[in-house]
Design goal:
By secondary structure, this protein is mainly alpha-helical. The chain is built from seven helices and three strands; from the N terminus they run H-E-H-H-E-E-H-H-H-H. It has helices spanning about 15-25, 40-45, 50-60, 80-100, 105-125, 130-145, 150-170; strands at about 35, 65, 75. The chain has a three-stranded antiparallel beta sheet with strand order 1-3-2. The chain starts with 12 loop residues before the first helix and ends with a helix.
Length: about 170
C-alpha cells in the first residue's frame, strides 16, 4: 500500500487554526485588545494546546497578535503613530500593485470589481463594519492579483492583517 502524499492529506491542525484566526483578525472580527487563550482556541477548533500555541506563535510573528511578558495573547491596540505607519505602507504598496494590475485588466475583472463594489456599498448602508472590511479586502485582493506581484501582495496582506482589529474599531464608528 502506498503512503499518501502530504498534499493529499487534510491541512495540519495548526495550519487550519492559523488560517481561520488570521482571516478573523484580518476581517476585523476581533476588537483591539481582545484577549485570546490557548485553551479557548483549542476548545473552539477542537485541537490540543500544541496547534493552538503554534497558530498563536505565527500570528504574533506577523504582528497580528500581541504577546505580553505575562503570556497574555491579544489583538494589538495600535497607537496613532503605528496606524499612520501602516496607512503609509498601504499607500506605497497599493499604488504600486494597482499600477501593475491595471494594464492587465479585462472586462471580466472590471465586472467582478463592480459587483464587489456594490457589496461594499451595501455593507456601508447596513453599517456592517466586518462585512465592509471583508468586501473591501476582496475588492483590493481581486485587483491586486492581476499585478502578478506575489511578494508585494503578501506584504500588503500582512499590513491588512495588522490593521484588521483597528479598522473594525474605526469603521464601527
Amino acid at each position: 500500500m502506498l503512503a499518501s502524499k502530504p498534499s493529499d492529506a487534510a491541512p495540519a491542525a495548526h495550519d487550519r487554526v492559523y488560517r481561520a484566526l488570521r482571516t478573523r483578525i484580518m476581517h476585523g472580527e476581533m476588537s483591539p485588545g481582545q484577549a485570546l487563550t490557548l485553551r479557548g482556541i483549542g476548545k473552539e477548533f477542537g485541537v490540543s494546546m500544541t496547534p493552538a500555541r503554534e497558530s498563536v506563535r505565527r500570528l504574533v510573528a506577523e504582528g497580528a497578535l500581541s504577546l505580553s511578558s505575562s503570556g497574555r495573547v491579544s489583538a494589538p491596540e495600535l497607537t496613532n503613530e503605528r496606524i499612520e505607519e501602516l496607512a503609509a505602507l498601504r499607500a506605497l504598496l497599493e499604488v504600486e500593485l494597482a499600477s501593475r494590475a491595471l494594464p492587465r485588466a479585462h472586462m471580466a475583472l472590471i465586472d467582478r470589481l463592480q459587483a464587489i463594489n456594490m457589496t461594499v456599498a451595501e455593507m456601508v448602508s447596513k453599517r456592517d463594519a466586518v462585512g465592509y472590511i471583508r468586501s473591501n479586502l476582496e475588492f483590493h485582493r481581486t485587483l491586486y492579483l492581476r499585478a502578478q506581484a506575489p511578494a508585494m501582495l503578501a506584504i500588503a496582506e500582512t499590513v491588512w492583517l495588522q490593521l484588521g482589529p483597528t479598522m473594525r474599531a474605526l469603521y464601527g464608528r
